[in-house]
Design brief:
alpha+beta; globular
Length: 105
Amino acid sequence: MANRDSDKEVVILGGGPAGLAAGIALRQRGIGCLVVEARLPTIDKGCGEGLLPDAITALRELGISLADGDGHRLRGIRFVSRAHELEARFPNGTGIGVRRTRFIG
């Protein structure tokens, strides 16, 4: 029996939002790929799920839409340390905070 993964042209390490988006983009271009994730699904952690406005645009171009009910809209970002605080609004729209589990299924 042949290994069905042996004909893949690209291996993507990491099944987070960036890895999955890369896999979708490659498949839409007819390029065989395999996404490898070290952890068992369903991974529910806050890592990479604060999507900036350009990420939302890129997802739309891949055919993935996020509704307001899928997460919490983000108007900007804020960094805070003991000595400093910096806040800025996004100049080109809003981002969205989305749980990783929203992208499964």
